[in-house]
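Hi C.,

You asked whether I'd gotten around to modeling the 200-residue construct. I have! Everything is below, sequence then structure, no commentary in between.
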Amino acid sequence: MIRVLLADDEAMIRSALAALLRLEPDIEVVAECADGEEAVAEALRLSPDVCLLDLEMPGLDGVEVAARVTRAIATRCIVVTRHARPGVLRRALASGVSGFLPKSRGADEVAEVIRRVAAGGRYVDPEVAADALSDERCPLTDRELDVLRAGRRGETTGQIARSLSLAPGTIRNHVSAILSKLAVSTRQQAVLFAEERGWI
């Protein structure tokens, strides 16, 4: 049996997919989680073979969950999303994700991807892969992306500085560079710009 952990903050989608996967003869759903923090805790407790993670969850997103879990235990992660943006795909693959597919796929296709990934393979949806190859590259440094992530919910410069263990002046310098590179006038516009392209 392939032991699977499901994480999705939308209860109806989570329970429906769990019910459909339980009909598969070789898949056992061992946990259903409503957010990223719960997914990490349950994955560490249960050591599932595969974690099927929604990208858009409150707190930790699916890629962040995958990065934490794969560093700690020998599990394989698949990220599913409504908005399969190319930048997100690159971030997911860099975090050790083994599968990436849109939520528009049927439960039978999801089961096939789970089997492939559990067997040691990888799967990236072909349309997402094609988009990723033609997408513009991110001009921001990793540290600049960290600053945008840390301030994506409107945090102050001081709060961002504390969360990244940097000086407020350093944060202001990074923000100035970000605004210049993206040709926008506010940090909120920069966050939206980066989110739309899947860079954060």
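If it helps when you're writing up: The CA atoms of residues 86 and 132 lie 4 Å apart.

Thanks,
B.
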